[in-house]
Amino acid sequence: MKYIDITKSGGSNVLKLKHMGKPLPKKSEILIKVKAAGVNRPDILQRMGLYPPPKGSPLYPGLEVAGIIESIGENVSGFSIGQQVCALLAGGGYAEYCVVPFQQVLPIPDGLSMIEAAAIPETFFTVWSNIFDIGKLKKNERVLIHGGSSGIGTTAIQLCSIFGSEVYVTVGSDEKRNACIDLGAKEAINYNKEDFYESIISHTDKRGVNLIMDMVSGDYVNKNIKLLSDKGRLIFIAFLKGPKAEANFGLVMQKRITITGSTLRPQSKIFKGKIAKNLYKYVWPYLEQKKIRPIIDSVYPIEKVSEAHDRMESNRHIGKIVLTV
Ligand SMILES: NC(=O)c1ccc[n+]([C@@H]2O[C@H](COP(=O)([O-])OP(=O)(O)OC[C@H]3O[C@@H](n4cnc5c(N)ncnc54)[C@H](OP(=O)(O)O)[C@@H]3O)[C@@H](O)[C@H]2O)c1
């Protein structure tokens, strides 16, 4: 089968199309013939040598796919050969075939294409786990998502809005601002024009927000803590501006703020399976009713994977970049 190898750590030119034998599913795994694979920022970090895959997962990139079930392990029930599915992987999605524990596989929501379905798992699992499971976001709470136009951000805006929260986001351009407002954000603050702390304090009548999901960190951290209301939750999912910060922890104590974070990729198949069940129950109906959708920025054939990575690193994209196989 064809797959994309990271030949050494470096720029997008280290990604090369190669050939190897088809993987075989173990007893509790499913073999998927991949039709489309999502590109995620962690793939870029892995290519640069900054995000090694967890033990036991393929060394080549790809955290999510959509495709057709080719074969199933003897302990798998509830799926059939030929079924159209999407799946969350710990690696190995940039390929013609992949194997994945059945717990991480979901049927493609009715009416969605392979390309759209491949753009779902990584961001929907991450947002659900962090904002709803860890952050326990409630109806009518106010939430701030940094990186609002990212794959993660466009999913978070839609999920938080549909479950009744008021969503604020930060973005780097007016084009991204408009896209986030169209998706349901109450306010999108272009951080190149305005200070996000001042802007959100003023938009919320000084009440601030109840929950922040932050992929930026660095000098955002102290402003995040200042913006959180009583019993606010600050959840880290990445550190695009670096993992170190100076902050006033007196406010954490006074406002009883919870600071936490998580990474999805190294978690167990049981953990991921619980998220899959909740997504299927609570989110799939909205996808099928077209009330929410994965936002597709661009699509590249797998042979042009380097161009797809360049597009992501340009930071010009809005939503998801997808490879077709
Ligand atoms: N913890 C987890 O389990 C988990 C899972 C998946 C992803 N992630 C992380 O979540 C983040 C988003 O992933 P994604 O795949 O959705 O990525 P993405 O679509 O590439 O989005 C990243 C966005 O971050 C913004 N950005 C980049 N550099 C920045 C900087 N220095 N300061 C401020 N903003 C910056 C850019 O938007 P602007 O131009 O608007 O700034 C960019 O569009 C990544 O950092 C990824 O590693 C974490």
Secondary structure topology:
Elements: E1 2-6, E2 15-19, E3 29-39, H1 41-47, E4 64-72, E5 84-88, E6 97-101, E7 105-107, H2 114-118, H3 121-134, E8 142-145, H4 151-162, E9 166-171, H5 174-183, E10 187-190, H6 196-203, E11 209-214, H7 220-227, E12 228-236, H8 249-255, E13 258-261, H9 269-288, E14 296-301, H10 305-313, E15 320-324
Helix pairs in contact: 3-4, 3-9, 6-7
The structure holds NADP nicotinamide-adenine-dinucleotide phosphate.
Biggest sheet descriptor = 7 strands, mixed
Topology pattern, helix = H, strand = E:
EEEHEEEEHHEHEHEHEHEHEHEHE
Q: Which second-level CATH architecture of the largest domain applies?
A: Alpha-Beta Complex
CATH superfamily of the largest domain: Medium-chain alcohol dehydrogenases, catalytic domain
* Total of DSSP H or I helical runs spanning 4+ residues: 10
Terminal Cα span? 11 Å
Number of strands: 15
Overview of the molecule:
With 325 residues, the chain is an alpha/beta fold. The chain has 2 domains: 2-120 and 265-324, Quinone Oxidoreductase, Chain A, domain 1 (Alpha-Beta Complex), CATH 3.90.180; 124-261, NAD(P)-binding Rossmann-like Domain (Rossmann fold), CATH 3.40.50.720. It contains 10 helices and 15 strands. The strands form 3 sheets. Strands 3, 4, 5, 6, 7, 14 and 15 form a 7-stranded mixed sheet that branches. It has a 6-stranded parallel sheet with strand order 10-9-8-11-12-13, sandwiched between helices. Helix 3 (121-134) crosses helix 9 (269-288). The termini are close together. The mean pLDDT is 98. The structure holds NADP nicotinamide-adenine-dinucleotide phosphate. Residues 40-42, 122, 126, 147, 149-152, 171-172, 176, 215-216, 237-238, 240-241, 262-264, 312, 315 line the site of NADP nicotinamide-adenine-dinucleotide phosphate.
